[in-house]
């Protein structure tokens, strides 16, 4: 995508938001717009922001914090730069990568004349001899120190558990509590934490943009309640009107075992659950509330835990989840372009293609296509899809249970079970890229087209680009099941569309929506 962007409006301070495709960044952008700021979003894949409701109101530029040369354009003429990028890899090198990215960003921001850097990190406990921070909390703290030592004034906000619809912390809490009336839990459930509502996090982030130039420090941010994780689960059960939960602590459960247990019960994969579990080993309670000097508390103070839980749960029930923890692509997710012919990259490209005429309008067919996944499933061999998801979780993948952000609407960049929406042409095309662990790259395309004699045509194409010999073995090993999986999917999607058409005999087929076109460059 390309575009000219808008000219600089000196009356409106310009904010750069990195991590705009992520959970907090995707919510911060509309909050900044509402506060009257001019917003520029930096993304490695700008197209992922195309379908956000605020896409037309921002400028989108390409940039990658791991590539210092790509930061010059995003940081030009910026007053406040929000750094909302975190490494979530479990590899040994993620701390070094985080350090180098923060140092490069600070240096380039100084060269560009940025007025302030705002960073959201993790709340760390008071130093205790012999008690080391988890690697991820240690890295968050180090990144904050890098910005505080840089020439550009910095605001470093330090938060513990963020409670909001779609946050990893909330979904972990929600699924553990809802699915397990009796829980055998690790010792960290008795650790004290100070959760904060996502709305208060956004209020502090927006307010940080107007801090005096001489302020260069970190601030602890949290809600009014200090609780244990066990108490949070009990409070969630009360808010959700669930029966009282029986919670039994087992001290020998290590963070690694805890992450596997979380991955088994919740949609949060072990790769993300592990840093969360490691962080919960530490008591993280605010030691000051100095932020109120610069960002005054609202009437009544910050939201309490029960209020935050009730609001988050209501957003989930009303299908009004703006962003989810899975909004950002997981570490190691493929970014190669979709192959367009069998000679792509000089290698093999396997395809499975299906097409059916459907006695329904393209609109009815499109509704079924756009509603695929999540609670609606994949329209064929449910056990097979479930087993594939379980196997993916066992090898550290995202699994099938990430579900959907919205029950009926998709946008580019959305996670969809173990797929991600790579392209969507409303009313016509949905292209998904696989994010499960595979010895190659895979895509699934679904089309709603006008067929012959006024009928509707459903077309489906699965593509697989193998990586090495194992990739070829994988394709031929699963190909005997394609007739059941892909053939059954095509037939059942067609039937679902026909059933929907029969339920709406007078429905008209509207023209496809025009996809939003943000200002990008």
From TrEMBL:
<dbReference type="InterPro" id="IPR021295">
    <property type="entry name" value="DUF2867"/>
</dbReference>
<feature type="compositionally biased region" description="Low complexity">
    <location>
        <begin position="498"/>
        <end position="510"/>
    </location>
</feature>
<feature type="region of interest" description="Disordered">
    <location>
        <begin position="498"/>
        <end position="521"/>
    </location>
</feature>
<dbReference type="InterPro" id="IPR036291">
    <property type="entry name" value="NAD(P)-bd_dom_sf"/>
</dbReference>
<feature type="compositionally biased region" description="Pro residues">
    <location>
        <begin position="331"/>
        <end position="340"/>
    </location>
</feature>
<protein>
    <submittedName>
        <fullName>SDR family oxidoreductase</fullName>
    </submittedName>
</protein>
<feature type="domain" description="NAD(P)-binding">
    <location>
        <begin position="19"/>
        <end position="123"/>
    </location>
</feature>
<dbReference type="InterPro" id="IPR016040">
    <property type="entry name" value="NAD(P)-bd_dom"/>
</dbReference>
<dbReference type="InterPro" id="IPR051207">
    <property type="entry name" value="ComplexI_NDUFA9_subunit"/>
</dbReference>
<dbReference type="GO" id="GO:0044877">
    <property type="term" value="F:protein-containing complex binding"/>
</dbReference>
<dbReference type="Pfam" id="PF11066">
    <property type="entry name" value="DUF2867"/>
</dbReference>
<dbReference type="Pfam" id="PF13460">
    <property type="entry name" value="NAD_binding_10"/>
</dbReference>
<feature type="region of interest" description="Disordered">
    <location>
        <begin position="324"/>
        <end position="346"/>
    </location>
</feature>
